[in-house]
Amino acid sequence: MDGIEQKETEENAPSVIDRYYTRWYRADMKGKPCEDHCILQHSNRICVVTLAETHPILQNGRTIKSINYQISNGCSRLNNKVSGKSKRGGQFLTDFAPLCRITCTDESEYTIYSCIRGRLLEVNENILERPALLLEKPFTEGYIAVILPKFEESKSITENLLSREEFESIISKRNVAESQPS
Amino acid sequence: MLPLKEKDKPIVQKLLSAGCCARCILRFCCVRVQAAYRQPQQDTLKELQAFICDTENSKSQDSAASEATEENNKSHDAAVSEAPEEPPTKRVKLEPSGTDAQSEEDAAAAAAAAAVTLKEEESHVCVLCLGILHQFCGASQAVKIAETVKEEKYEFDTLVLSVSLPAQLCVREHSCWLHVKKEVREKGLVLDKDDVIQVKEAFKWIMQGLVAKELGRGVAVVTRSAFEVGVEFIHEATDSDCHFLASACPDCFKPTKNKQSVFTRMAVVKALEKISDARFLKHYPCPPAQPSSCCSLQDVQCVHVSVFVAGRYNKFCRSLPQTPWVIDGERRMESSVEELIAAPILSAFRADGFNFSSSGREDVDVRTLGNGRPFAMELLNPHKSRLSRAEMKQLQETINKSSDKIRVRDLQVVSREAMSRMKEGEEEKTKSYTALIWTQKPIEREEITFIDDIKELTLDQKTPLRVLHRRALAVRQRVIHSMNTRFLDPHHFYLGLKTQAGTYIKEFVHGDFGRTKPNLCELLKTDTDILELDVESVDVDWPPVIPE
User: Fold this and answer.
1) Do B473 and A143 touch (CB under 8 A)?
2) Which molecular-function annotations from GO does this UniProt entry contain (chain A) (predicted)?
């Protein structure tokens, strides 16, 4: 194989995410500017919640001070346990259920939300030990949580979300607005 | 002649007047001589009537005291000789009794017999078997059953006859038992309910030989066979016989999803064991009421026990699922491994359906090369159950000619027990793979050779997201016994793996969001992806290899 062919295979070969997942987005979550979330939905209906590439945490060379899955005094996402094929016992989440709070070293704090209705299967504990994963690989190893929508809602949960095209058009409008003097 | 003893007399008397048929009376007298059931019902009835009219009962207390006319005796000799296991009954020849010696008791018995004769003339239906041992036992019924069997074109040497009866027959049986038990206890006899011959049993005694005769060609009707012919009777008119039991023993009749009615035979038998005699008699007539119609023959069903076929298959296609792939009721991909294999096998064994299982499975885009993957199939209700070695070889060739996407070897008939060998040691067995790997960063030939030295690498695999919707979430430890690499170009190499069964290879390569650890991305310190995967071997020594 020569160099040209190689380049082609790289570009043509879709990544694992491209092959098996559909990307959905939520822009300006809870009205907070630019706090965009990304939902990767597998063809088997399982959803992975990640930061969108435009999220403030990933901008301006921010670094992470702490990640906290204890979302209230009585509730920690770390206590979530599911058992069996039917995933009994998982916490049930709605669109605006907080998953974790992330504090950056510049003391800015962000809440990451579920964005979809479903049963919480797991949260990513690896990012507690290595918060840098969230910055280095936000869409793979730096994921936030895995959620299983109800079978009958697996199609409808994405109705409130933006497709990749819709999200990109919002981002480009946002960039235009930013670049214009107010 | 009938092997009845003096002590049977009161039972015969009571049951005759209760409206039982002659064969049911034999059952309640616990007669185990099969020939007695095979003789014409009319003759049996005459014998029974003569038996209870006999006045000389005191003289023949301990001897077999069946009484019959001379001509009946002749016609029954043949029937009795059919059952050589039964010692010849000692016959006591009795003189016809004079009118002066006739007791009151005998007069009553004669009256009962006369009443029964009258009922018989009206062709009444037996209160106990609802006609099963009468209207449904005979040569014409045997022809009907044999015709149904012949139509289905089964290949068989033996068959077993099974009978399904309406549940209310148990209630009627119980009522009759209480009816004669009273009488029996007065006489001080020991007769238990379990000693009563079951309707099923008597039906089979009568019908087995007749059905075998109709089928001809050396077919034997036996008590155990792989081929079963089921005869189902129903009687809707008396279904309500059971209903009072529901209020008497509500815990025996809990509704279940699959049952059409809660009044199953099992439930009714259980309720009858629980209910007190007094309570039963309060709610149900004793003896049972006269039915206006007899049972109907609902169905004759033939079923052959499953045949099991095993072998190994190769899959040469990257767009062929192992089993039909259906999403939201819509079919994806036009075929599947199991369908390609099953279709010729189903037609060779003329089976109604199949269950396919294999030693693990591969993804739709994965090939299975080498000696292939062991599989086994249960063939449901095969109409042909025996294929010779040559026929099996022919069948294998038919499968292999039908498609170039798959290939089958070592095709053979196996036992149900042998099939479990395949699932045994599922965790311990090893599998070999070849994967085509892509690396994000360019690699040098010597940069990947360290992988060849890694032995017995233990992975912690969280259930892959790919299968998490149908498998429990867990961290499973799996071992990669060895690996080898073959450099292709700066972004590609072939990775050979020998692993413990149950290792998810794709996830080991791309890491599954960091959920399989360690993974190839970590080992090579760059993102890696899997472009192609082949199963090279599934190391299970079952089924046995068949030399070509």
Assistant:
1) no
2) actin filament binding; actin monomer binding
Take residue A5 and report the two structure tokens written for it. 């062919």
ipTM above 0.85, yes or no: yes
The answer to whether residue A19 neighbours chain B at the CB level (below 8 Å) is no
| Residue B311 sits in the same domain as residue B407 | yes
Last residue of a domain, one of B280, B303, B326: B303
- Domain check: are B174 and B227 in the same one? yes
The residues of B whose Cβ lies within 8 A of any Cβ of A are 327, 438, 462, 465-473, 488-492, 510-511, 513-514, 529, 531
What phi-psi label fits residue B459: left (phi over 0), alpha (psi between -120 and 50 degrees) or beta? beta
B83 inside domain: no
Write down the domain spans for chain A.
Answer: 16-168
Could you tell me if B521 and B444 lie in one domain? yes
Q: What phi-psi label fits residue B76: left (phi over 0), alpha (psi between -120 and 50 degrees) or beta?
A: alpha
- B340 lies in some domain: yes
Model confidence over B47-79: pLDDT tens digits? 999 998 875 444 444 444 343 333 344 444 433
C-alpha span between B335 and B259 (Å, rounded): 35
CA distances from B13 to B53, B103, B133, B183 (A): 10, 15, 19, 10
- Beta-carbon neighbour count of residue A22 at 10 Å? 16
How far is residue B45's CA from residue B153's CA, in Å, rounded to a whole number?
39
Band (pLDDT 50/70/90 cuts) for residue B107 is low
Q: What angle do CA B54, B60, B63 make, to 5 degrees?
A: 120
Is the four-CA dihedral B23, B28, B29, B34 of positive or negative sign? positive
Q: Which of B428, B458, B492 is the last residue of a domain?
A: B428
Residue B512 a catalytic site member: no
Residue B411: Cβ-neighbour burial (10 angstroms; 0-12, 13-18, 19+): buried
For chain B, what is the domain count?
A: 3
**Closest chain B C-alpha to A107 CA, distance in angstroms:** 28
For residues A42 and B307, give the distance between their C-alpha atoms in angstroms, rounded to a whole number.
40
The CATH number of domain A16-168 is 3.40.225.10: no
| Domain identity same for B414 and B321 | yes
The answer, for A156 touching chain B at a CB cutoff of 8 Å, is no
Angle between helix axes B139-151 and B199-215 (nearest 10 degrees) is: 60
**What range defines the domain where residue B270 resides?**
136-303
Judgement on whether residues B470 and B341 belong to the same structural domain of the protein? no
Question: Shortest CA distance to A150 belongs to which of A78, A75, A93?
Answer: A93
